[in-house]
Each structure stands twice: as C-alpha cells, then as structure tokens.
Amino acid sequence: VVSWTALLTAYAQNGHFTEAKSLFLEMPERNTVSCNAMLAAYAANGDMASSRALFNDMHGERDAVTWSTMITGYARNGDVREARKIFDAQPKCQCDVTAWNAMISGYGLCGDVDAATSLFAEMTTRDAVTWNSMLAAYAQNGHILAAKALFDSMPYKSLVSWTSLLVAYAESGHIDEARLMFDAMPRRDVVARNAMLSAYSQAGYIADARQLFDDMPVRSTVTWNAMIAGYGQNGLGGDAILLFQQMDVEGIPTDDITFVSVLDVCGSVAELQLGEIVHREVEAIGIEIGVTLGNALVTMYGRCGVLDLARQLFDGMPERD
RNA sequence: GCCCAUGUCGCUGUCUG
After folding, report:
1. Which residues, 6+ apart, have CB-to-CB distance to A316 below 8 Å?
2. Gap from A299 CA to B17 C1', Å
3. Smallest CA–C1' separation from A192: which nucleotide?
4. Nearest of A44, A1, A51 to residue A26 by alpha carbon
5. Which nucleotide has the shortest C1'-to-CA distance from A41?
6. How confident is the model over A289-299, as pLDDT tens digits?
7. Nucleotide nearest to A106 in CA–C1' terms
8. Percent of chain A having pLDDT more than 90?
9. Would you give the DSSP letter of residue A61?
C-alpha cells in the first residue's frame, strides 16, 4: 500500500490526475493514507464532488489528515463556507493545529481577514505555521500595518515570515521597506532572493534585479522566470528573449510559467517568429497545453495579428476559462 | 520500539487592464 500511495501522490502532484485515479481504483488494498492522498488529488483537479463522496465513504477511517485535507480542498476551490462546515464537523477532541492553520489560510485566501483574525484569537495552541498563516492573511490582503505589527510580536520568525512581509511591502509599492527587510533577514534562501528580485523589477529597478540574479549562489526555475518576466514588464523584450535562450543552453528546466512569460513578451513586441518557435518547442517537449498555456498562445497570436491561428487554437482547447 | 506513503504558511506568469 505504501508504494502504491507514493506513486499515486507522484502522479497527482505532476498533474497526471487520470493515472492517479486509475491507480487508486486498481490498488489491491486501500487505507486511510491512500484515501487521503486521493482526496487531495481530487481537490487538486477541482473535483470536490468526488472528494466529498470519498470522504463520506471513509466514515470510521478518518484521521486528522483527512479533515485538514478536506478543509484545504474546499478553500482552494473557492468554497470557504463548506471548508468551515468541515472544520466545525470535526470531532471536538481532535485539536489538530494543522486543521486550524488550514482554516486560517482558507479565510486569508478568500479575503476574509476578520474571520481569520477571530479564529487566530480563539486558538490556544499556536505553532510557527499558525503565525505565518495569520501574517500571510494580513499581508496578502493589503493589511500591511497589521502584518507588520503581527510580525513584530511573533515569538519566532522564520524565513517564511520575513519573505511574506517583504513581498507585502513590494506589492504595495514600498520597495525601500522591502529592501530593508531583505537586508535585515538573518539568512536568505532562494525563495527570499527570488522575492527580492521580483520586488526590484516591479519597482523598475531592473539593474538591481539583474545584479541580484547574477549574484545568486543558487537559482531555481522561478528565478529565471522572474527575471524573464521582469525584463518583459520593463520593456526589455530582447533581454527577456536572450535569457530564455540561455535557459535552454544551460539546460535549466522550464515550466508553464516560463513559456507564458516568454509568449507574453513575444506578443507585446509582436515577435511572431519567436512566438512560433516557442510554440513548436512547447509541442516538442510534450507539455500538455492546458488553459494557462493555451491562453498565452491565443493572446500571443492575437497580438501578432494572426487571428486565424489564434481562433484555431481557441477552438482546439480542451478546456477554456 | 523505530524507519518508508497522505494534510496547513513565503517567491515567478497569461486575459479582464
């Protein structure tokens, strides 16, 4: 069961929902852990109805993970009310911090900062994630002052806390504050550096962004994506394209967002030829063209004036939003 | 008794703009 479940999760986390599902159905044996994994897989695929059906079947087989998986599933699929119902339906003796944390995050996600705050206040046992979840709820909903106040009162600050606040400053246009946070951080990882890189480019400080990029000891796909998007957003489409090509040369793994960013640049500077090359590359690599990539391709062709191709792609999309 | 599978917090993107 352990290896079947591990495989199921691997499929689900790489977007192979169909394979995950048939694996689940073919498993010789299922337990709470494998059912929990499938609950999460359904939720990641937006299928809360199936998730709920399985949850209902799990009656005596539910554990703490089951409950928090359902809470997160509903929250991420835009149904906080149902998430809260699940939260309230938990056996009361089950004081699982993770479920509380998930519920706070759910409220943060849907913008209900007040509900997050009161839940946070009710908690008697908080862990590091609890504090960070509350911080994120403030930070991601524009409550910068509240975020800062909470940050200052936090018993333990992790990289997550620092980065959350840094991003909140950057996105509200307080680049100097963001930079102060970055400089004051006790240590920095690749996520923190990526956040600062984006902060620079959002503020138009593209040279600082590039400097940071060059100085980074470790770069992730997100780093490259952020730099490419930064060039694009600052009107430096040529540099964006160069960087994309360098990614290829250096064998850096790409993802959907890489292609979306590059296609966006192609569209904005009407680089039809490169857009077509990227399109072919996407197909060559065999990435599935889902809504995200499909939208980017349609937009790119549209901006380049190739409306018939844009329309053809649109018609061929298996899913649209 | 211990180890291996599942859940909660921070970074990048397209349309609407």
Report:
1. none
2. 14
3. B11
4. A1
5. B6
6. 888 899 999 99
7. B8
8. 79
9. G
